[in-house]
Amino acid sequence: MRKVFYIVRKEFLQVFRNRMMLPIIFVMPLAQLLILAYAVTYEIKHIDLFICDIDNTMISREFTGHFIHSPFYNVKYQERSISKGMDELRKGKVHQMIVILPGFEKALNQGRPVRVQVINDAINSSAAALMNAYTLSIIQHFNRNNIEAHFITRGTPAQVNLEYSYWFNPDLNYKTFMVPGILVLLVTLIGMFLSGMNVVREKEIGTIEQINVTPLRKTQFIAGKLIPFWIIGLLELAFGLVLARLFFNIPILGNIPLIFMVAAVFLLVVTGLGLLISTLVNTQQQSMFISWFILVIFILLSGLFTPIESMPQWAKVLTFLNPIAHFIEIMRLVMLKGAGLKHILQPLGVLVLYAAVILSLAIKKYRKTT
Amino acid sequence: MNKPDGNKWKVIVVENLVKKFGSFVANDHLNFEVGGGEIFGFLGANGAGKTTAMRILCGLSKPTSGNVKVAGFDVYTQTEKIKAHIGYMSQRFSLYEDLTVSENFQFYGGIYGLNRMQIKEKLENMLSRLQLEAMRKRLIRTLPPGIRQKVAFSVAIMHEPEIAFLDEPTGGVDPITRRQFWEMIYETAARGITVFVTTHYMDEAEYCDRISIMVDGRIEALDTPAELKKQHDVSSINDVFLKLARKPARNIQL
Lengths: 370, 254
Prior knowledge:
The complex is a heterodimer. Chain A is α/β, with parallel strands linked by helices.
């Protein structure tokens, strides 16, 4: 144990003697939270819209007025040329076009169904789906007003009214959803890169030989290398949680010690993975490439940006092997829903198993004798 | 372990050591013994196979075949026991450049299992012997190469090993520092620590009790410097070396 302490102390001395380290540890979380939480959003505002109102009557203008006054739309053109609208769509100047053909008012007044054409730029399919949803809700709203205004004398038909209640994120605040996941990324990056670069750096400098020629046990070596980055990772998480609470008003409903307990297990997985990579490669460059390769897959399949539920079956199987996905799930459950230990046993169990496998591999693959 | 007196105690026993990398034979049936407290010079041109053999003796690499015992332990099965009884100073730099002299001492002392008091004592002894008291808080990277090498040697023997393996310890060091370094080697040997040293400087070879000269993976000569000079009828080890190493069949940098 005393030997492990000497390694840990040496690693801390080296980390904090590196002038870049402190800024990285404190500025990185701030930048990540600010940029990712504010910029990466599922909400769409200011959709560039082309309105082609050929009918140009009172009712058609009332209809288009709903779009003009909506905060989600930015009406760029109101012209009567369909071909101009098509051009603007092709150029990417507008993302949606609405065409109202002649006879719109007439048909409505006669109580006949009428058609409005909506063309969406569906290059980004999820954005297109959202635009469609906004448009539909505006049209429904228009329909209801129209029915009430013109047919009130005949009595309003009975309707089922839906009332929604949004649990766990009542304001439908996007940041509430993102921040727990971003905290996970933060801890992952710090843990994986610090450890992934460490052993291989000693290989490059040559000091690893000097350690390999001592009677130090492999377990002691890996423990001594792992503990410093494990501690830094936990401090990073604490710092991130404070930022989330103070600047983003993210609710932390669950038990904070529970969050740290899970993070402690999760950090064993990522620092262990970093050390494993580090023991297998010969240069920091190789370590960097492999770490990035793994991280990109883990992050994209983590459920942070796209819901795991909508992935194909094979990808869902892959996410089961993804420690980041499990930790993000747990973080959302605990932070936003106040889940307790009994609610997170399954993903936590996977992480514990993962940590055990990765650490044994790292110890096994580290060779003192070639 | 019962340790017989004097030169009878063989701290290194090598019989028919062979090390192959693929089809390349780096060490071709080496046979030699090194006695306790001896200064053993391990000579050879670049690529002759010196470092390969030394890494095997230190338990960093496994031999292809042959029997090798170091400090009484087998290099196939007891490498970790060997490591507790040897010190190693590699050709490449072995101290952490971003740590100070005393931090390096604490780290290596710590992983060799020395306690706080022992580390402090070793550090103070080294600083006063090398007159480096003012340098204890200096980062290694700010020290001149000669001083770094002396500190590295002190680190390699701070746990009082039976054998110190030094791989070209005086490479790139000025003549005065080399002389001081050899004084350190003599002091070490006088304390009963066997010194196994490789070098390219033939004048240094004269300081050794016995030397071996490797050519193309084989040991071509093994005796005291005086005896080797007599055998080859020359006046210096440099001439012995040139005679033996004149026609290496291979010229490969390992």
